[in-house]
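Researcher: We plan to redesign the surface later, but first we want a full-length starting point. Tokens attached.
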């Protein structure tokens, strides 16, 4: 019962995360967060789960982990960050990165490692 309640809570977090990330965007059209999620949806073709870690950088929302189960194959967990690419860094000349991890495990704790590394 607790797992189902957590899953429902996490699935509902998508709109909360999008709303928060939209507040960082300066455009009323498609925000960077929406374009990123649309891109990931096109690749993974499944609804992800979301986890959030508080940001250590003033003015930026917490780092979000976007989690896909059974990707790239059954028994794996794949997680990507969002928010790192909003930070400007002098060494990032040709793009702005996000982090990704893919492990042969169904333990979702691995997915929560990615935003911690990004904070």
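Model: Full-length starting sequence:
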């Amino acid at each position: 019962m607790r797992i189902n309640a957590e899953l429902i809570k996490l699935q509902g977090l998508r709109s909360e995360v999008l709303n928060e990330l939209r507040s960082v965007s300066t455009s009323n059209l498609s925000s960077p967060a929406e374009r990123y999620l649309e891109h990931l949806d096109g690749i993974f073709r499944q609804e992800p789960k979301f986890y959030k870690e508080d940001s250590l950088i003033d003015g930026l929302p917490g780092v979000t982990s976007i989690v896909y189960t059974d990707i790239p194959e059954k028994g794996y967990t794949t997680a990507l960050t969002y928010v790192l690419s909003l930070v400007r860094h002098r060494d990032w000349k040709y793009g702005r990165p996000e982090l990704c991890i893919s492990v042969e495990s169904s333990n979702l704790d691995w997915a929560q490692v990615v935003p911690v590394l990004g904070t």
